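User: Show me a protein chain along with its predicted structure.
Assistant: Here is one chain, sequence first, then structure tokens.
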Amino acid sequence: MSSADTLRYARQIRLPDVGVEGQRRLAEAAVLVIGAGGLGAPALHHLVASGVGRVGFVEFDHVDVTNLHRQTLYATSDVGRPKAEAARDRLEAINPEITVEAHPVRLGAANAEALLADYDLVLDGSDTFATRYVVNDASVRTGTPNVFASVSQFSGQISVFGTDTGPCYRCLFPDPPPPDLIPNCEDGGVLGVVPSLFGTLQAAEALKWLLEIGTPLVGRLLMIDALTMDVREIAVHRDPQCPACGDAPARRAPRDSRAEPPEITVAELRAWDETDPPVLVDVREASEHHADNIGGRLIPLSQLEARAFELDDVRDREVVVYCASGGRSAVGARLLRERGLRARSLRGGMEAWNALS
């Protein structure tokens, strides 16, 4: 180690469980973070600041003003920039001696294994169930331990999955819940400090794992409610019948748990031929629609299944479903496609539309 490194990490090296040898181990490690949002931002910050030698992250989104209250890598001046670019610049400014690798792609079953296989550890900071299952399955397939966390409103949970001896995410949740059962942060809201808390805990678990110190959260799901500061822990056991890490090898192949419907970008929608415009369907609530909308038919997601027949007259036309940020519209587009309509979801929803206005 150089004298500059010894000085930078002096307070960490001083720890008996770290020392110079532990700091060298961190410098030789490679960690991949899925998402550079509420969870990924603080996790990436601490991994880079702590001296992990190669830190990669997967992020295809752009910085939106609604991100700023919780995604701590970004500033107001970053609004509109690709997150991959803004996060890389910030991380390299925090620690220019670290190799930062930005992957500006959407993670899916087709590329997950190739991405994870190049790293020692993966931190899952994604915010959709489909991505969590893809990360989990690729983690098991490549033998890359997975530090998982998720948050909602005032609480969150964290565990370490995909190790040689412990369970995986599917051992706890074999199949995803109905897509409209649990709202994401955009729809359900989140207190800004909660993802920062759990992203920091993910970084702590990653450092412990790389240093081989402490007791990792393998086989343990830690849950914290920030409103009450109640802390609970439950045991999670490996399931021999698990579809990902169970004893039947044929069941281990990673797959997308739930096919995502096709999307359309704001730019593509704006450029649509006006002689044959798509049918717009807003699946937000009435109060949201009346406050700000781009037209079309209002059918809240909670009513869409029962009222899908109202779109029978447009079965021969393209349908674009939209909401606030793209979460509910993806669910709505999937439901309409299952009923034979040519539906697509507006990526980024009204937030993306207004950002380009």
